[in-house]
Amino acid sequence: MAFIPCRSGCGACCTELSISSAIPGMPNGKPAGVRCVQLADDFRCRIFGQPQRPQVCSDFQAEEEFCGNSRDEAVQQMRWLETNTRVEAR
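-> C-alpha coordinates emitted (90 positions)
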Protein backbone atom coordinates (compact mmCIF):
# COMPACT_ATOMS: atom_id res chain seq x y z
CA MET A 1 0.00 0.00 0.00
CA ALA A 2 1.52 3.28 -1.11
CA PHE A 3 0.15 6.56 0.10
CA ILE A 4 0.10 9.37 -2.43
CA PRO A 5 -0.46 13.10 -2.00
CA CYS A 6 -4.09 14.18 -2.24
CA ARG A 7 -4.79 15.38 -5.78
CA SER A 8 -5.62 19.07 -6.00
CA GLY A 9 -9.08 19.61 -7.47
CA CYS A 10 -10.31 16.07 -6.76
CA GLY A 11 -12.59 15.79 -3.72
CA ALA A 12 -13.93 12.39 -4.87
CA CYS A 13 -13.85 11.08 -1.30
CA CYS A 14 -15.94 14.09 -0.24
CA THR A 15 -18.64 13.38 -2.81
CA GLU A 16 -18.72 9.62 -3.43
CA LEU A 17 -18.25 8.06 0.01
CA SER A 18 -20.85 7.98 2.78
CA ILE A 19 -19.86 9.48 6.12
CA SER A 20 -21.85 8.43 9.18
CA SER A 21 -20.19 10.95 11.52
CA ALA A 22 -21.62 14.40 12.07
CA ILE A 23 -20.10 17.11 9.89
CA PRO A 24 -20.62 20.83 10.58
CA GLY A 25 -23.69 21.65 8.49
CA MET A 26 -24.57 17.95 8.12
CA PRO A 27 -25.39 16.71 11.64
CA ASN A 28 -26.41 13.25 10.41
CA GLY A 29 -23.37 12.76 8.19
CA LYS A 30 -23.79 12.41 4.44
CA PRO A 31 -24.93 9.67 2.10
CA ALA A 32 -22.81 8.40 -0.76
CA GLY A 33 -23.03 10.53 -3.89
CA VAL A 34 -23.85 13.70 -1.96
CA ARG A 35 -21.32 16.52 -1.90
CA CYS A 36 -20.13 17.44 1.59
CA VAL A 37 -21.20 20.97 2.53
CA GLN A 38 -17.63 21.60 3.66
CA LEU A 39 -16.21 20.94 0.19
CA ALA A 40 -15.38 24.28 -1.43
CA ASP A 41 -15.81 25.02 -5.15
CA ASP A 42 -12.08 24.34 -5.66
CA PHE A 43 -12.61 20.85 -4.14
CA ARG A 44 -10.71 21.68 -0.95
CA CYS A 45 -12.05 20.95 2.52
CA ARG A 46 -13.08 24.10 4.38
CA ILE A 47 -12.42 22.44 7.76
CA PHE A 48 -9.18 20.62 6.90
CA GLY A 49 -6.99 20.51 10.00
CA GLN A 50 -9.80 21.81 12.21
CA PRO A 51 -10.99 19.91 15.30
CA GLN A 52 -14.59 19.71 14.00
CA ARG A 53 -13.48 17.70 10.94
CA PRO A 54 -14.74 14.10 11.34
CA GLN A 55 -12.06 11.64 12.42
CA VAL A 56 -12.86 9.36 9.48
CA CYS A 57 -11.94 12.21 7.12
CA SER A 58 -8.75 13.01 9.00
CA ASP A 59 -7.76 9.32 8.95
CA PHE A 60 -8.33 8.86 5.21
CA GLN A 61 -5.06 8.48 3.31
CA ALA A 62 -5.00 8.81 -0.46
CA GLU A 63 -3.83 5.63 -2.16
CA GLU A 64 -3.45 4.92 -5.85
CA GLU A 65 -5.73 1.88 -5.41
CA PHE A 66 -8.60 4.18 -4.39
CA CYS A 67 -7.67 7.44 -6.09
CA GLY A 68 -6.34 6.28 -9.44
CA ASN A 69 -4.61 8.75 -11.75
CA SER A 70 -7.38 11.34 -12.14
CA ARG A 71 -10.52 12.68 -10.50
CA ASP A 72 -12.63 10.62 -12.92
CA GLU A 73 -10.81 7.43 -11.93
CA ALA A 74 -11.15 8.31 -8.25
CA VAL A 75 -14.90 8.88 -8.63
CA GLN A 76 -15.35 5.53 -10.38
CA GLN A 77 -13.23 3.63 -7.88
CA MET A 78 -14.84 5.22 -4.84
CA ARG A 79 -18.33 4.54 -6.21
CA TRP A 80 -17.31 0.91 -6.64
CA LEU A 81 -15.84 0.81 -3.14
CA GLU A 82 -18.94 2.38 -1.59
CA THR A 83 -21.31 0.03 -3.43
CA ASN A 84 -19.33 -3.12 -2.75
CA THR A 85 -18.60 -2.50 0.94
CA ARG A 86 -22.02 -1.22 1.95
CA VAL A 87 -23.49 -2.95 4.96
CA GLU A 88 -27.26 -3.19 4.77
CA ALA A 89 -29.26 -2.47 7.92
CA ARG A 90 -31.03 -5.53 9.29
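The longest helix spans residues 71-85.
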